[in-house]
Amino acid sequence: MNFKLLLRTILFLAILFVMLYVGMTNTDNIRFHLPLVWNKPVEQPAALIYFAIFAVGVIAGTLFNVGGGKGSRGSAKSKD
Hints:
Mean pLDDT: 79
Distance between the termini: 28 Å
Helix content: 55-70%
Structural class: mainly alpha
Largest sheet: 2 strands, antiparallel
Number of helices: 3
Order of helices and strands: HEEHH
Strand order of the largest sheet: 1-2
Number of strands: 2
């Protein structure tokens, strides 16, 4: 088993646990302002806003890590 993958999975689960804990303890509505994207403030439960920000970060991190530019395909040598 790949140790690096196991370590990343454990770290990801720890981050998910923190998100769950924050969401469970912060149930009040909050006003979220992001004028560059949305003109009106959003008022939602804190857990939902925390989750949305976390989800955007996970998607962005996945896109950065999976993307694979020109060098990833072209540098592999074919085995004859």
